[in-house]
Amino acid sequence: MPRFFVDTSDQEFFVRDEEGLECENLEGARNAAIAVLPDMAREGLPTNNSRTFSAIVRGEDGRTLFQASLHFQFTSLFPEHERP
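RE: above sequence
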């Protein structure tokens, strides 16, 4: 089975996957990249109300194959002086 590496970034930190994971095909690697994004968002909610979380998938040869991203945006609907 081919090995894929899922590097992650949250616009502040980049983590290079040195271990990788075995997947049957590109679809399996795609699913692994997508699955990591909600966990990253839960663990790293931004203090500046906006952040993009990314998972970059590399093949065994080190070539970047694709990237999956999740953008978090918080927008208050109350003017600051009216907030409860």
